[in-house]
Amino acid sequence: MTTHATTDATNDATTDAATDASSRAAAGQAPEAAAGARTHSNLGLGRLYLRRFLRNRLAVAGVGIFVLLVLFSAFGDRFTSYAYTDADFTALTQPPSGLHWFGTNQGGNDIYACAVHGLQRSLVIAVSVSVLTIVVAAIVGSGAAYFGGRVERAALAVIHFLLVVPSFLILALVSHRLAGDWRVLIIVLTAFGWMSTARVIWSVSTSLRERDYVKAAEFMGVGPLRIILRHIIPNLGSLLIVNLTLGVVATVLSETALSFLGFGVQTPDVSLGTMLADGAGTITSAPWLFAFPAGLVVLLTVSMTFIGDGLRDALDPTSVTGSAGGRR
User: Fold this and answer.
1) Measured between alpha carbons, how far is 116 from 75 in angstroms, rounded to an integer?
2) Number of C-alpha atoms within 13 angstroms, CB side, residue 30?
3) In this predicted structure, what is the pLDDT of residue 28?
4) Contact yes or no for 194/137 (Cβ under 8 A)
5) Which residues have C-beta within 8 Å of that of residue 19, sequence separation ≥ 6?
6) pLDDT at residue 141 above 60?
7) What average pLDDT does range 171-175 have in this prediction?
8) For residues 168 and 254, what is the distance between their CA atoms, to the nearest angstrom?
9) pLDDT tens for residues 49-102?
10) Which residues pair with 104 in a beta bridge?
């Protein structure tokens, strides 16, 4: 009896293997291809996105540059004995030297120390505004799409109204009125920077609200807020990540422009924009005053642009780097 059972099991296994092989052949898929497909499907999404991202050499270079800039802003002050507020009255508008690596300005302030603090301040403003902007845009955009009806029309009316308001002039007036406090600048830049992203999120969320998992959650009695936070916003992850990265670039440029025109960060505080404003009038006589902060701004914006492009390609399977043989 045991012999018969063993024989039957062997025959069943042989039959199943033959069936699987014939099914793969009928589907036009070789056994090696099927094994490769299983291996590919077993890869976590995180590893898959990382592999796509690492194929983009410019994106990897952007990460390297950004990490160096963050380290410079965090630990750069340990390599100088001067603070950004210190004044060396024996070295006014001096070119770079062994004592002052990046030179000094008209007030005797060490440009290296100012660059470290200015980059730190600009990074804090840019990252804070970008994160807050994404949070507000995600909640408003996905909420408007989910609720629909009057809520949707009211939200879109507010978004469209704010989009046509001359926000730059309001930003300049408000920040100047409040003495250029960088905390107020974060609030003001956030208040007038979320509308475009919210409209994009709304347009994508209108299709997500019709998905089966959203309908199932509604049928089970899940509240609207939880549906938005647990089922709609997480499915916008790739869009939010890319916009978060590129939002840092837009905020750096906005903060730099405002500070350059005298409406952003005010003295005695320092940002890259204030340093550019101070050095703009001495490009020919003291070029180091403008060159070093301008170089930091360029490196920061270029690195974040490369990172944003790399993330967009990694999260988009139809992109060049998203394909198996994609290279840049």
Assistant:
1) 8
2) 3
3) 42
4) yes
5) none
6) yes
7) 74
8) 9
9) 888 889 999 999 999 999 999 999 999 989 988 899 888 888 888 999 888 899
10) 110
